[in-house]
Amino acid sequence: MKEYPVILVLDAGGTNLVFNAVQNGHVVGKPVILPAKSENLNEFLQKLIAGFKTVGEQSPKTPSAISFCFPGPADYERGIIGDLENLPFFKGGVPLKKMLENKFGIPVFINNDGDLFALGEALGGLQAEINFASKKIYRNLLGVTLGTGFGGGIVTNGRLFTGDNSAAGEINRMSNIFDRNQSVEEVLSIRGIKKLFAEKAGVTIIDVPEPYDIYRIGMGEKPGNRDAALAAWEDFAVVLADAIANAVTLVDGNVVIGGGLSGAYPLFLDKTVELLNGYFKKETGETVPRMEIKAYNWHNKKCKEDFLNYSPKKVAVPFSDEYVEWDETKKIAVGISTLGTSQAVALGAYHYAMNHLDD
Predict the structure, then answer these.
(1) Do residues 260 and 180 both lie within one domain?
(2) Against a cut of 0.85, is the pTM above it?
(3) Is 220 exposed, middle or buried (CB count within 10 Å of its CB: 0-12, 13-18, 19+)?
(4) 107 sits in which H/E element
(5) Long-range contacts of 300-309 (CB under 8 A, 24+ apart)
(6) Which domain holds residue 252?
(7) For all residues of the chain together, what is the average pLDDT?
(8) Does residue 33 lie in a domain region?
(9) What is the pLDDT of residues 275-308, one digit of tens each?
C-alpha cells in the first residue's frame, strides 16, 4: 500500500490560526487552534512555529512539507509577505517561507486563501461533483470567497494559475458596478452587506444586525425589516454577477463560491445567475448575450437538469457522407462550496504542496 506524505497546513484567519496535518487529502490527528491576534511580529511568528511543531509531533509520520494560505499582498512564490493592512508588523516585508524552512528543514509553500480554496474545490469539491455527474469533463474553475473580504482563485487542469506576480485571480480589485470609484470588496464582504442593509433600512451602521441575521430576516425566519434585507441581498447579487461575468469571460470555467457569506446563497444566487445570462444592448437596439457561455445554478433543480442535459445534433462533414456530433450550447455551472471553505483551503494547500513535491 502506498505511503502518502503528510503535509502540515494552516488556515490563517483574522480570528484564529487553525493548524492541521493532512495525508492523502484527509486530516489526520486533531487541529491546533491559536488566536491570531498578536502584539508584535515576534509573538505572531512564535505562534506559527508552535502550531506547526504541535501538529507535526501529532502526525503519524514525519511531515514532508508545510503548505498554507496567508493574506497578501505577497510574493507567494518566494514566500515573502508584504505590507498587510490587518498585520502592520509585517510592514517592509517578511520572508516567512525561508524562516519556516530554516526552522523545520522541509519545503514550505504559501499562497492566498482564494487560490487554495479554488484548488481544493477543483480537486475534491464542487468541480469533482460536477465532473462525476456530467458527460463533459470541466478543467477550469473560478473560485470566489465572500467573507471579511472578497477573494478569488483560478484553476486549470488541476493546477493553480498564479500569474507572473502572484496576483492572478485578485478579483477584489474589480470596480463596483454601482460606484466605479470603489472596489467590489466594498459590497461583497461582511462590511458590504451590512452597509447595504443600513442604506435600505434607513438606520445607522451600529444598529445593523450581523450578516447571518440579515439573511434570516430576508428568509422570514427572524423579525426585522425584510424588505430591506431582500433589497440588500439583491444589490449584493448585482455586484457579484458583474464581477463573476468579467472574470469568467477570461477563465471560461465553472464557478464555486465559498466564504462565510456563501451560506446566504438562497437570497442571491438565483439573481446572480440570471444576471450572468443577461444581455448587452447595441446602438441598433439589438442585444448580445452578456457572456458567450451560459451559466446554470447548480442548486436549482431545473437549471441543474438543463446543465447536465447533453443533446448534440449531427452536422454534416463537407465533401463526405460523414456526420459529427455537436452540442452548440456552451455551459458553466455556478455553485456553492461542497467541502466548506476551511476544508477546501486545507485540501488545496495539500495538493499545492504535492504538485510542487512531484515536480
Answers:
(1) yes
(2) yes
(3) exposed
(4) none
(5) 300/270, 300/273, 303/273, 304/333, 307/134, 307/331, 307/333, 308/133, 308/134, 308/135
(6) 116-317+325-339
(7) 92
(8) yes
(9) 999 999 999 989 999 999 999 999 999 999 999 9
